[in-house]
Design goal:
Number of strands: 8
Structural class: alpha/beta
Order of helices and strands: HEEHEEEHEHEE
Strand content: 25-35%
Number of domains: 1
Distance between the termini: 47 Å
Helix content: 10-25%
Largest sheet: 8 strands, mixed
Strand order of the largest sheet: 1-2-6-7-3-4-5-8
Shape: globular
């Protein structure tokens, strides 16, 4: 009798969501058009149970639940996993079918871009980055992550909706600059 290989657990817990750092900014696509960018990383370890291997395993599980691509693969289409709540300007990143989502920092300019262009580049980083990191630190993180193949990629699409999902919001402190000319 053949036993199928074990499937990777793609359940995303609320505990994982509240432990994540999220950053948003406006970048440029290959045609030099503005595009919404999202970076999700683990927060720095808080204890012995958060060993590097455990953190990476959690982030890979989260990326798998989103449907992210490895760096050498074509960028995955994650579907409509961004939910924009127009009245409150909250934006949630959620895995398909999940009741909860990660509330993203949503500067009014970033939200206006989402209303004009609903596709967003999503990056999941495997290494920790503090929630209060400055954009210069984010740029360095992205450069090192690309070099070390520590980033996973996807394209998400935003949909407007009512209160279909519940948010788990990270603490305040992630501000979005007007435009950061970062290209991928």
């Amino acid at each position: 009798m053949l036993t199928p290989p074990p499937q990777q657990d793609t359940h995303v817990s609320i505990g994982l969501l509240v432990s994540l750092s999220a950053f948003t900014w406006i970048g440029l696509d290959p045609a030099n058009a503005p595009v919404g960018m999202v970076l999700v990383t683990p927060s720095p370890a808080r204890g012995a149970e958060d060993a590097d291997r455990t953190i990476e395993q959690r982030m890979r599980s989260y990326a798998a639940a989103l449907g992210m691509s490895e760096p050498e693969e074509p960028m995955a289409d994650l579907g409509s996993c961004l939910t924009l709540h127009p009245r409150s300007a909250h934006v949630l990143l959620h895995t398909n079918g999940a009741r909860y989502g990660l509330q993203l920092p949503a500067h009014p300019r970033w939200v206006r871009l989402l209303l004009r262009r609903s596709d967003v580049a999503v990056i999941v980083g495997l290494d920790p980055l503090a929630r209060i990191a400055a954009m210069a630190d984010v740029d360095s993180y992205l450069a090192l992550g690309l070099e070390g193949r520590r980033l996973l990629f996807g394209t998400a699409h935003a949909v407007r909706t009512g209160a279909a999902h519940t948010s788990t919001s990270p603490p305040a402190g992630s501000e979005i600059p007007e435009t950061v000319p970062t290209t991928f």
